[in-house]
Amino acid sequence: MNNNEVNTYLEQLEHPLKAEVLQLRNYIKTDFPSLTEIIKWNAPSYQYNQLDFLTFNLAKPKDIKLILHRGAKNKEASLTRLIEDQSGLLQWAANDRAIITFTKSDEITNHQENLKSIIQNWITKL
């Protein structure tokens, strides 16, 4: 999953939460080594079986958003939320699109297992 394009992007990244971006990336790469990591929508993005499903949103300097989705192409709308979230981390933009927001390192550390569970569950619904 080591991608030179992503490495170059992150080396050049100017974001107040760059350390936290790298922390999240490390967790994702460690917990999900089979994912493909690319730059898409001007941010690190992850694919499972060539389907985009997890994308960083670094547009705001005060937070990092992880967008969970089902790819760039429209799919039939889900009538229910794609997964259950016992952690409360997910903010639902649609039944098949959710956002996790982090603003500091300790939030990421404290929710590492929740994040892993959410990503695992999301992958099973793709």
Automatic annotation (TrEMBL):
Residues 18-123 form the YdhG-like domain. It holds the Pfam family DUF1801. SUPFAM superfamilies: YdhG-like. This is DUF1801 domain-containing protein.
